[in-house]
Amino acid sequence: MVINELLQLGVEKLGEREYLDPLLESIIILSYLQNVDKSYIYTHGDKEIPEEIVDKFLNFIEKRKKGYPLSYILKEKEFYGLDFYIEEGVLVPRPDTEILVEWIINKVNNEFKDKPLNVVELGTGSGCIALTLAYYLKNIKVFAVDIDEVALKVANINRDNLNLNDRVSFYKGDLFNGISSLQLEGKIDIIVSNPPYIPTNAIPELQIEVREYEPKKALDGGEEGLLFYKKIVPESKKYLKSGGILAFEIGYDQGIKVKKLLEKNGFKDISIIKDFQGLDRVVVGRLG
Ligand code: GLN
C-alpha cells in the first residue's frame, strides 16, 4: 500500500467522528510512525509503506476512532513552546494552562526579575507547569509534588529531557505533605496549582477523550469541584512569605468562589484571568 492509499483509508475510518480532522490526524499518525516530517507525507503520496507500519497505523486509527487521545498515541504534547513526553496515566497538557504559566512568567519578570525565588507546584502531573516555569525563569527553584507514581515517572523524564535537574525537584505526596520534611514554611514566593477541579457529577459530560482515557484522579475535584482549593488555600499561608503569590487554574464557573475563598483567608490583590474563549480560567492572589 502507498501513502495516499493509506491516508484515504485513515480518513474513511476516522470520518465518522465529526470533531476530528481525519486527514490531518492520519497524516500526523503516519509521519510519527515513519519518523518523517508531515511535509514528507504530503510530497511522497506514491511511496510504498512497509506492512508492519500499515498494521500499526490501522491499529492507532482504530484507537483514535474510539476517542483515545492523540497525545497518548504520539507520546508527546507541545506546551508553551516545549515538547513534553506524555503517556497514558497523566493529564495531557492543555493550552488553557499556558495562561497560568504566562501570567507567572510576566509577574516574575516584572516584579522579581533576577531575584532568587522558591516556587511550589502542587499536582504537577507531566511536570509541564514546573518545568516550563524553570525553563523560562532562570532565577527560580521549583519544588513540585504529585501523589501519583506514573506522573512522577513522566515528570522526571521531562526534567531530564529539558536538562532542569538542578532547579526542579519532584516529591511524592498528597499536596503539602509531599514537601513537609523540607522545612520550607515561610520560605515560598509562589505557589501554583492546576488541581483536579471538575465536579464529580460533571465528569460524564466531558469529551470522550477526557472522560474515557485521562486519569480521573487528575480531574475529579469532588462534589463542587472545589475540594483541592479548599485544602490548598488555608495550608498555603504556612508556606508563603508575606507578599507571596498563590496562582490557580480553575474551572470556567469557579472564579468567584475561589476568589471568595482567597479573600476569606486574607489574600489581597485577587484577580480572575480569562482564557481564549473568554471564560474564567486563572485566579491569583497575594498573601497580605
Ligand atoms: N481543563 C481540564 C478539562 O477540562 C481539567 C483539568 C483539571 O481538572 N485540572 O478537562
UniProtKB/TrEMBL annotation:
<dbReference type="InterPro" id="IPR040758">
    <property type="entry name" value="PrmC_N"/>
</dbReference>
<feature type="binding site">
    <location>
        <position position="146"/>
    </location>
    <ligand>
        <name>S-adenosyl-L-methionine</name>
    </ligand>
</feature>
<keyword id="KW-0949">S-adenosyl-L-methionine</keyword>
<comment type="similarity">
    <text>Belongs to the protein N5-glutamine methyltransferase family. PrmC subfamily.</text>
</comment>
<dbReference type="GO" id="GO:0003676">
    <property type="term" value="F:nucleic acid binding"/>
</dbReference>
<feature type="binding site">
    <location>
        <begin position="194"/>
        <end position="197"/>
    </location>
    <ligand>
        <name>substrate</name>
    </ligand>
</feature>
<protein>
    <recommendedName>
        <fullName>Release factor glutamine methyltransferase</fullName>
        <ecNumber>2.1.1.297</ecNumber>
    </recommendedName>
</protein>
<dbReference type="InterPro" id="IPR029063">
    <property type="entry name" value="SAM-dependent_MTases_sf"/>
</dbReference>
<keyword id="KW-0808">Transferase</keyword>
<dbReference type="InterPro" id="IPR025714">
    <property type="entry name" value="Methyltranfer_dom"/>
</dbReference>
<dbReference type="InterPro" id="IPR019874">
    <property type="entry name" value="RF_methyltr_PrmC"/>
</dbReference>
<dbReference type="InterPro" id="IPR050320">
    <property type="entry name" value="N5-glutamine_MTase"/>
</dbReference>
<feature type="domain" description="Methyltransferase">
    <location>
        <begin position="114"/>
        <end position="249"/>
    </location>
</feature>
<comment type="function">
    <text>Methylates the class 1 translation termination release factors RF1/PrfA and RF2/PrfB on the glutamine residue of the universally conserved GGQ motif.</text>
</comment>
<dbReference type="Pfam" id="PF13847">
    <property type="entry name" value="Methyltransf_31"/>
</dbReference>
<feature type="domain" description="Release factor glutamine methyltransferase N-terminal">
    <location>
        <begin position="5"/>
        <end position="74"/>
    </location>
</feature>
<dbReference type="GO" id="GO:0032259">
    <property type="term" value="P:methylation"/>
</dbReference>
<dbReference type="InterPro" id="IPR002052">
    <property type="entry name" value="DNA_methylase_N6_adenine_CS"/>
</dbReference>
<feature type="binding site">
    <location>
        <position position="194"/>
    </location>
    <ligand>
        <name>S-adenosyl-L-methionine</name>
    </ligand>
</feature>
<keyword id="KW-0489">Methyltransferase</keyword>
<dbReference type="InterPro" id="IPR004556">
    <property type="entry name" value="HemK-like"/>
</dbReference>
<dbReference type="Pfam" id="PF17827">
    <property type="entry name" value="PrmC_N"/>
</dbReference>
<dbReference type="GO" id="GO:0102559">
    <property type="term" value="F:peptide chain release factor N(5)-glutamine methyltransferase activity"/>
</dbReference>
<feature type="binding site">
    <location>
        <begin position="123"/>
        <end position="127"/>
    </location>
    <ligand>
        <name>S-adenosyl-L-methionine</name>
    </ligand>
</feature>
